[in-house]
Amino acid sequence: MRLRYTRPAMIDLENVAAYIGAHSPQGARRVMQRIKTLIEQLQDQPFAGARTQDPTIRRLIALPYPYLIFYEITEAEIVIHAVRHGSRDPAAMPGQT
Length: 97
What we know:
Largest sheet: 5 strands, mixed
Pfam family, one: ParE_toxin
Protein name: Type II toxin-antitoxin system RelE/ParE family toxin
Radius of gyration: 13 Å
Number of helices: 2
Structural class: alpha+beta
Strand order of the largest sheet: 1-5-4-3-2
Helix content: 25-40%
Keywords: Toxin-antitoxin system
Family: Belongs to the RelE toxin family.
Order of helices and strands: EHHEEEE
């Protein structure tokens, strides 16, 4: 399956890298590599993430880091909607009502 990132997801990734990178460039590389690896693995295991309250959106935790990857599976692609820190307001995250 093809991967597609929404513009908000790209902004989320840029913000994660910038925030962590301001404190630890090496830490930012590790976190971003973990997120990237998990997203790429979705091509082989698209149902790896848990369902959210919205049945079209799934959530994958980027362990050991506290980041959540929100995505949607369509017939042709996996759409990455957001990458958020787990401590953020759950009601503001994709798939939550």
